[in-house]
Write a structure and sequence with these properties.
single chain, nine-stranded mixed β-sheet, 9 strands, globular, alpha/beta
Length: 254
């Protein structure tokens, strides 16, 4: 399948590359990176298999199966236009980071989500969840189940509310609790890796809910495998991607 990662404003290009690398390592056939930054690299030197474009061009590519938008996107007018264009596409949509922050400020875009026929998946941490619900972060944490269900209903999608014991609200209104993961995974870039993993699994034919459940479990399990190597302090998102690939290959039928 084919994935497009849209984000990477000035100073935040790494977020888009982390998501793209994770999508490739989880088995996506083709991964395009659409960057918003004016001073953008022409290639990811660590993973030249990624195809790099200007953000607006990446959204116009033929044959996309899933778009993941928000990784280092920022909240500029240009970023808001990209989110508008992404929501209108007839593809599965993974919304992360600044895409969620823009949604919280733009009720018109939220309304557009109800017109979508393909899966929409939202991946907020508690702070982003609070913005989406227009309440305080403490209120989200005090009522996590109610919060994840409320976001799923208000934004017409499947949701993972990240944090200790991440909660997943599926399209049919069920809530799952994820028990993998550890405090070492609170470092930068972990959410970008997770969104890239979700996108990769959708691209390979899983439903939105299946992709969400598998990615959240596997992401945490990879962090746990790293922690077993006595690497909880200083754990990086890049290392989690590598361990996730190793675990996925052990899980996959041969």
């Amino acid at each position: 399948g084919t994935v497009a990662i849209i984000g990477g404003s000035e100073g935040m290009i790494g977020a888009a590359f982390l998501a793209g690398r994770a999508a490739l390592k989880m088995g996506a056939g083709v991964v395009h990176i659409g960057l918003l930054a004016d001073k953008m690299p022409l290639v990811d030197m660590r993973m030249p298999e990624l195809m790099v474009h200007r953000a607006q061009d990446a959204l116009k590519l033929p044959g996309l199966d899933v778009v993941c938008i928000g990784n280092g996107l920022g909240r500029s007018l240009g970023a808001q236009k990209l989110l508008y264009d992404a929501i209108k596409l007839d593809v599965a949509l993974v919304l992360d980071a600044d895409a969620l922050n823009i949604l919280a400020e733009r009720p018109d875009l939220r309304g557009m989500l109800f017109e979508r026929k393909r899966p929409t998946l939202l991946t907020p941490h508690p702070g982003e969840a609070a913005r989406l619900l227009h309440i305080k972060t403490e209120e989200v944490q005090d009522a996590r189940v109610a919060s994840v269900l409320d976001i799923a209903k208000r934004y017409h999608g499947s949701v993972v509310l990240k944090g200790a014991d991440s909660l997943i609200a599926t399209a049919d209104g069920k809530v799952y609790v994820n028990k993998t993961g550890n405090p070492g995974m609170s470092s930068a870039g972990m959410g970008d890796v997770l969104s890239g993993m979700i996108a990769a699994f959708i691209a390979q034919g899983l439903s939105g809910d299946e992709a969400l459940l598998l990615a959240v479990h596997l992401h945490g399990a990879a962090g746990d495998a790293l922690a077993e190597q006595v690497a909880t302090i200083g754990m990086s998102a890049t290392e989690v991607t590598e361990w996730a690939r190793w675990l996925l290959n052990r899980m996959a039928p041969h």
